[in-house]
Design brief:
Radius of gyration: 19 Å
Helix content: over 70%
Low-confidence stretches: none
Number of strands: 0
Strand content: under 5%
Shape: globular
Distance between the termini: 38 Å
């Protein structure tokens, strides 16, 4: 038995099975199999009107792009040229882990265990951070990899940053903490933290636009939800919009600087 060939093949199979489980989980989450949709599960704790930092429902359409990208990544890592590639070897199992955690999160939410979903999404965020470190530390082989791999995983990380904050806020609300009379300003503070995370990721990734775009996307829809829906909050809406501009603006500036320095484009 050639262990050199078997190890990559096993990783490729793990990624593929994880994708299939992730897709099944997403179908459960949107009620394809008759289950409760995520926004209605757990008593609506994760719906667009549950907290002041919850994005409006259209924000979640980003998952369609992410799932399509993960399917593309799964096919990409099967290509013979990348079977034993060191970058793909390091990425496969962490990415597979994120897909399994994604499916697990949906099942936990369906079970109504909101604080349990916080633990799962926190683990997902940590694993995506590990993926991000690998992406930043090892350059992509070409445009296709930058788009399919770096782009997809960047969107994934950026969106999960926003989703984690919304998930924690939902859990606190379920536990009885809603900020009281200072709820608007609690929301502003939380959104400032999201902006800080987005800026830090932009700096670490030298302006990777996919991460910043996903974070900004989520923040813009938080602004829409708070300005056009209930509960309304002008301070939270303004803070979310400002945070989106800061995150995306920082990434663009750093991206332009990186391109000028070495001509390398990273998603």
């Amino acid at each position: 038995m050639d262990d050199t060939n078997d190890a990559p093949r096993l990783q490729q199979v793990v990624v593929t099975v994880s994708l299939l489980l992730c897709v099944v989980g997403s179908m459960i989450g949107v009620g394809v199999f008759g289950g409760t949709e995520v926004e209605d599960a757990a008593g609506g704790a994760l719906s667009a009107d549950a907290t002041l930092v919850a994005p409006a429902s259209p924000a979640f359409s980003i998952w369609s792009v992410i799932y399509l990208g993960l399917a593309g990544y799964t096919l990409f890592q099967w290509l013979p040229a990348h079977a034993r590639d060191d970058r793909q070897r390091r990425l496969r199992l962490p990415v597979a882990g994120t897909m399994l955690l994604n499916a697990a999160w949906i099942l936990v939410v369906q079970a109504g265990v909101v604080w349990g979903s916080v633990l799962v999404i926190a683990a997902l965020l940590v694993l995506l951070a590990r993926v991000f470190v690998i992406l930043v530390g090892t350059p992509a082989s070409g445009v296709a990899e930058r788009v399919v791999v770096d782009g997809t995983l960047g969107l994934y990380l950026g969106w999960v940053c926003v989703a984690t904050v919304a998930n924690v806020a939902a859990a606190l609300t379920v536990s009885g903490f809603d900020g009281g009379d200072a709820a608007d300003w609690w929301a502003v503070g939380v959104l400032a933290v999201v902006a800080g995370i987005g800026v830090a990721l932009a700096v670490r990734g030298r302006g990777r636009l996919a991460v910043a775009a996903a974070i900004s996307w989520g923040l813009v829809w938080v602004a829409v939800a708070r300005s056009q829906g209930e509960p309304g909050s002008a301070p939270a809406a303004a803070a979310a919009l400002a945070a989106a501009v800061v995150v995306l603006g920082t990434a663009v500036v750093l991206r332009v600087r990186a391109v000028r320095q070495d001509g390398r484009l990273a998603a």
